[in-house]
Prior knowledge:
Helices cover 28% and strands 28% of the residues. It is an alpha+beta fold. Strands 2-8-5-4-9 form a five-stranded antiparallel beta sheet.
Amino acid sequence: MTLPQQTGYWARWEQRSFGWKAAVEFLHPFGRDHADAFARLDPLFEALRSIPGVEVPPTEWLHATWLHLGFLRAEDIMWSQVETYYVSAAPRLRRVETRSVRLGGIALTDDGRVTLGVQDAGLFRDARKQAAVGAMKAREALRDDLAMTPAGDTFTATIDLAYLDGSASNGSVAQSIEAYRDVDLGAVTPTHLMLARVSTLPEHHYESIDIVAEVPMLGDAHRGGYHN
């Protein structure tokens, strides 16, 4: 059954996640590692929280998923398999060159999210490609990813800043973000690519982001030999 959009983001997530199963994802925890970058958005967060039906996650939850692998359930991913994804993908992910990432530009999406843009100079598309070469599960996930087109990978990373339920006023949200649509929060430089388990619950949508593995981006340095 397909739920109507007016049911809100988390109602649709409950269906997508097969009843709140934890997700396994390659992601970057911008809120954890670069919390200071979001300080300029505090007035926006306050304004969004004041709108009925809008949820703003804690800063430490803010992250960009660059490849969703699946959900922890018998028909998809078993917890015992997760470490094998890291072991398989890590040698290829080490080849990715670290680069500066600029955070800026806020939008309201059709599926009920307020998002912050991530201008990554192709960093996460490169990581997706390398992960798929190294790990079969990543290859399967990329094959089914809507960003993959006949012309190539069109993926663009974003960070979810807020979620709307069925009662939220899109007009009020749009008005709140208007002054921030072109905001530039500056640049940060991620140094690791991470595999994580992301847990959500019906009553607490921001249960935890459990970083399972952190792979250093070594780029050309990786060619000099094996690195842990």
